[in-house]
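User: C-alpha cells in, sequence out, please.
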C-alpha cells in the first residue's frame, strides 16, 4: 500500500508507545519496532540510496537522493525512537538538526559519536532546545565542557568505540529504542557488529552510476556466508522501503 507523507499519521507516535494496534499501514511498517526479540532494546538503522545503492555522487553531493516520502519516513522513525545516533563525520559535513519537522511527533534525544572530541560547539545537533544531547567520546579524549550536553566517555580501540559498548551506555541512560541514522560508516559498523534488529533501506527512483555505496562490510569468500535478512517491501509514493529483519543475527547487549 502506498502512503503519502501525511496520510493517517496523527496520533501514531502516542499509540506506538501504548499497547494499541497501529492503523494500516503503520502497524506493518513500524509494529516490529515496538519490542526487541533479543534483549530489552530495539535498534534500527536507516539509510536512503539510489537504485544502484549509491548514497552520494562521486563529488560527494547527496542532497537529496530521497524525495519527500523518503524523508518523511526518516522523520517518522525519529518520532518513534528514544534516541537517534550519528557519527561525527555526518554531524560536521551535514550539520543536521535531527529533529522531527516533517511529521507529527516528539523529537528524540540526539547522540553524536565523537571519539576524538572534534565536534564544534556551534553544531546544530548541540542546540539547546529542551531535548537531551549526548556526546560519546573516547575515554582519553579531551573536551571543553558544554552546558547541558551529556558526555559519555567509553574505551576506544583504533580510534573506534565498539557498537555494543555504545548501545549498553545508552541503555543504561534509559534509551530503549535507538535509531542509527548515519553516516554510511557508522551504519556499516553497527551492521558488521551484529548490533541491529532492523534495517530500513529507502530506495529512490534514480541511478547515480558512481559514488560511495550505502554499506561497506568486510569481504566474504562465499555467497553462503552472506548475512541473511528476511525483508518486506512497502511503497512510499515513488520510493520503496525495504524493512530488513536482522534480529536472528543480533548479538545480546543486555539484559537491562
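Assistant: Sequence out:
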Amino acid at each position: 500500500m502506498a502512503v503519502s507523507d501525511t496520510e493517517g499519521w496523527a496520533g501514531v507516535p502516542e499509540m506506538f508507545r501504548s499497547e494499541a494496534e497501529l492503523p494500516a499501514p503503520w502497524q506493518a511498517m513500524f509494529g516490529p519496532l515496538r519490542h526487541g526479540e533479543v534483549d530489552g532494546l530495539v535498534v534500527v538503522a536507516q539509510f536512503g540510496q539510489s537504485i544502484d545503492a549509491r548514497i552520494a555522487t562521486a563529488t560527494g553531493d547527496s542532497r537529496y537522493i530521497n524525495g519527500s516520502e523518503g524523508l518523511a519516513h526518516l522523520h517518522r522513525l525519529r518520532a518513534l525512537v528514544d534516541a537517534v545516533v550519528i557519527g561525527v563525520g555526518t554531524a560536521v559535513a551535514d550539520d543536521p538538526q535531527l529533529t522531527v519537522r516533517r511529521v507529527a511527533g516528539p523529537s528524540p534525544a540526539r547522540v553524536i559519536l565523537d571519539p576524538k572530541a572534534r565536534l564544534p560547539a556551534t553544531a546544530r545537533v548541540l542546540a539547546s532546545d529542551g531535548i537531551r544531547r549526548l556526546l560519546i567520546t573516547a575515554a582519553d579524549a579531551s573536551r571543553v565542557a558544554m552546558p547541558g550536553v551529556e558526555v559519555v566517555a567509553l574505551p576506544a580501540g583504533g580510534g573506534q568505540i565498539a557498537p555494543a559498548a555504545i548501545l549498553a551506555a545508552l541503555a543504561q541512560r534509559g534509551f530503549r529504542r535507538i535509531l542509527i541514522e548515519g553516516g554510511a560508516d557508522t551504519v556499516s559498523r553497527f551492521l558488521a557488529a551484529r548490533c541491529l534488529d532492523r534495517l530500513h533501506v529507502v530506495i529512490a527512483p534514480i541511478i547515480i552510476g558512481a559514488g560511495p555505496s550505502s554499506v561497506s562490510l568486510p569481504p566474504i569468500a562465499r555467497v553462503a556466508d552472506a548475512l541473511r535478512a528476511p525483508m518486506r517491501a512497502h511503497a512510499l509514493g515513488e520510493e520503496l522501503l525495504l524493512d530488513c529483519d536482522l534480529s536472528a543475527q543480533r548479538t545480546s547487549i543486555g539484559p537491562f
